[in-house]
């Protein structure tokens, strides 16, 4: 069985290619990325391919593949959403259409909790039937939601292809911590201080709670989605639901209450000054995300996460302090020797 993975050198991609390579019936994994990594994994080949429209004949890249796992995504530049739209939306549509031209039998697409509309007022967890209209104020949520609509039409046009959408919560692992710091916090985050006992207080934004998952557990779900004859969307989360008090507990810090409005104003000012990459609209979206019920993934994928949400965040904190990285262009540590590059 041959599987192609786009975006294979990022946080999720490095875990997915490793999980697929460990599957006995998978004989060939082609990792697609804009830049070739130094990472070496048995059964995994690499191809330097850009999914942006017009950059490559993706149908040729996908030729002979039994399944394509589409993970490629651009988070920046947040000040130029046209650039991210071109890669994330137009590039993804190109991937879908290339799968059809190449006769790929299964497409597994990386959607997200961010595709969902704001959660119910009573805070109950939602299943995969909850509307996926996203939050209009952030590029990331708009793009994820728009692709859900594209896949609705794509499935109708290509009923013979098995299309799966995985909608995970926030994904963390040690080896991706430095990349995630660069993507969302930028250079101002004092990452050397992110360790238990060093930070005196952690801002606790009112109303902020979230779900998390270790990236390797998400990769196990991607592998199951490739191997099992399933269709449609699957939520992926681990227990428990977290808030900043839980994060403060991991850091042995106290919490500093911060009204959501004040947090948004500070983030907006920092973003306008190009001090942080994360936009105020992204904070608005996170505050409105629904909690997810992953019952369908348990029942149909046979999937149970091996790490708790708390353990996933703890892995991120450990990787952040150490400047963790993996030998791929997106994940390579840029810290001053603190990282142990190559770990996954």
Structure explained in plain terms:
The structure is a single chain. This protein has a domain at 2-170 and 211-241: Rossmann fold (3-Layer(aba) Sandwich), CATH 3.40.50. Helices cover 37% and strands 18% of the residues. The chain is globular, with a radius of gyration of 19 Å. It has helices at residues 11-21, 58-62, 81-102, 139-157, 177-185, 215-227, 244-250, 260-272, 280-288, 295-300, 309-322; strands at 2-6, 28-33, 44-48, 67-70, 106-110, 162-168, 170-172, 201-205, 209-214, 232-236, 238-243, 254-258. The longest helix is centred in the first third of the chain and has 22 residues, at 81-102. A 7-stranded parallel beta sheet has the order 3-2-1-4-5-6-10, sandwiched between helices. It has a 3-stranded mixed beta sheet with strand order 7-9-11. The protein is α/β, with parallel strands linked by helices. Helix 1 (11-21) packs across helix 6, helix 3 (81-102) runs parallel beside helix 4 and helix 8 runs antiparallel to helix 9 (280-288). 48% of the residues are buried.
What keywords describe this structure?
3-stranded mixed sheet, single chain, alpha/beta, 344 residues
Helical residues, percent: 25-40%
Radius of gyration: 19 Å
- Count of individual beta strands: 12
Work out the strand percent. Answer: 15-25%
CATH topology of the domain at 2-170 and 211-241: Rossmann fold
Distance between the termini: 24 Å
Name given to the CATH architecture of the domain at 2-170 and 211-241: 3-Layer(aba) Sandwich
Shape, per Cα inertia axes: globular
The name of the CATH superfamily of the domain at 2-170 and 211-241 reads: NAD(P)-binding Rossmann-like Domain
């Amino acid at each position: 069985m041959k599987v192609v993975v786009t975006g294979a050198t990022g946080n999720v991609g490095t875990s997915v290619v490793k999980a697929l390579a460990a599957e006995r019936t998978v004989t060939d994994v082609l990792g697609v990325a804009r830049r070739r990594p130094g990472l070496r994994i048995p059964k995994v080949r690499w191809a330097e391919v850009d999914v942006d429209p017009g950059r490559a004949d993706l149908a040729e890249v996908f030729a002979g593949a039994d399944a394509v796992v589409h993970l490629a995504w651009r988070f920046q530049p947040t000040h130029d959403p046209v650039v991210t739209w071109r890669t994330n939306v137009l590039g993804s549509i190109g991937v879908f259409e290339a799968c059809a031209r190449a006769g790929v039998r299964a497409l597994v697409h990386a959607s997200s909790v961010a595709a969902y509309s704001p959660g119910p007022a009573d805070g109950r967890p939602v299943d995969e039937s909850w509307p996926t209209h996203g939050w209009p104020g952030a590029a990331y949520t708009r793009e994820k939601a728009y692709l859900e609509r594209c896949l609705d039409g794509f499935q109708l046009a290509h009923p013979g292809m098995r299309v799966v959408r995985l909608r995970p919560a926030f994904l963390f692992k040690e080896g991706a911590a430095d990349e995630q710091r660069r993507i969302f916090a930028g250079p101002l985050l004092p990452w050397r201080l992110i360790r238990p006992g060093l930070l005196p207080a952690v801002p606790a934004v009112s109303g902020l709670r979230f779900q998390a998952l270790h990236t390797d557990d998400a990769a196990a779900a991607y592998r199951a989605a490739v191997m099992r004859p399933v269709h449609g969307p699957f939520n992926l989360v681990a227990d428990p639901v977290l808030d900043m008090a839980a994060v403060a507990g991991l850091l042995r810090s106290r919490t500093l209450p911060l009204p959501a409005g004040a947090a948004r104003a500070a983030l907006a000012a920092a973003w306008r000054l190009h001090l942080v990459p994360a936009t105020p609209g992204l904070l608005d979206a996170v505050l409105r995300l629904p909690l997810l019920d992953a019952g369908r993934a348990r029942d149909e994928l046979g999937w149970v996460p091996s790490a708790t949400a708390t353990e996933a965040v703890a892995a991120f904190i450990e990787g952040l302090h150490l400047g963790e990285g993996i030998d791929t262009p997106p994940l390579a540590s840029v810290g001053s020797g603190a990282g142990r590059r190559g770990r996954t």
